[in-house]
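Human: I hope this is not a bother. Would you mind checking the protein record under this note? Thank you for your patience.
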Amino acid sequence: MNTEKPIGIVLLNMGGPDSLEAVRPFLYNLFSDRDLIQLPLGGLLQKPFARLISFFRARKVVENYRHIGGSSPLLRWTERQAEAIAAHLGPRYRPYVVMRYWKPRAEEVLRQMAADGIERAVVLSMYPHYTGATTGSSVKEFRQVAERVHPGLSFSVIEEWYNWPGYLDALAERIEEGLGYFHELIRDDVQIVFSAHALPQKFIDRGDPYLEHVMSTVKGVMERLPELPWRVGFQSRSGPVQWMEPGTEEVLDLLAEEGCQTVLMVPVSFVSDHIETLHEVDVEYAQHAIGKGIRLFFRSPSLNDAPSFTRAMADLVQAHLEK
């Protein structure tokens, strides 16, 4: 094997609409994925359901995206992460980004990789905690499309890194930055609320390790920080199914009832800013918390392209390659 040939670094992420006009088709792609949403009658009703729910949900979601500038920043941040990771690894490494529900999709990127002469790649899920609904779905699609579009590609996959020390260090660093928002006289009273994306409870009941991974991350991070009280909630719950508990709103309600005045929110299952940090946390949860009597509500900065985070991901890829 020619060791000088380029190696692709492929980051997998969810994707987000790049314009207000893209919101509805993005939602259609999202709700069409049976790994994410499983209707009781199998795939027969999946696409009609996706058309219906995306039609009704689009109006509200469009306004949320309008509030944060008219599009999702997720692609921009993921591209920056990929570029930084490849730069840490050296000139032999070429960055690529594949989004699951919006552009650039797997087929487009794999065709580009073939044109670029990439015969070997490491595929890195940008979800730290494994669940079949996110990493599982993205990896499955990548494998299927690669077999059809670029069958000569040899690649390995990093599916989870919830306890990678460099990741925990970088997240702890961001939380410390967030604690700096509070005056030093009240910093010891700050309540940390880790907010992870919720899953339907049936995913956990069938053996999905997501909850275990989230809790491992939280405990690993808190070992790196001063002794502060913390709780975990699950956000983005909607629809008539049983979701993981407690909801983030419920955690905020309970803290308010206990007389808590200062909260630092830490989105723990997201490594980039997008609609669920910039609107759901920064707008909806902030308004909810203040309405319940919590006086100071801040969110720790997202990891985005922080050098400590991209260096940690490069180290993760390097360790994977050396196995």
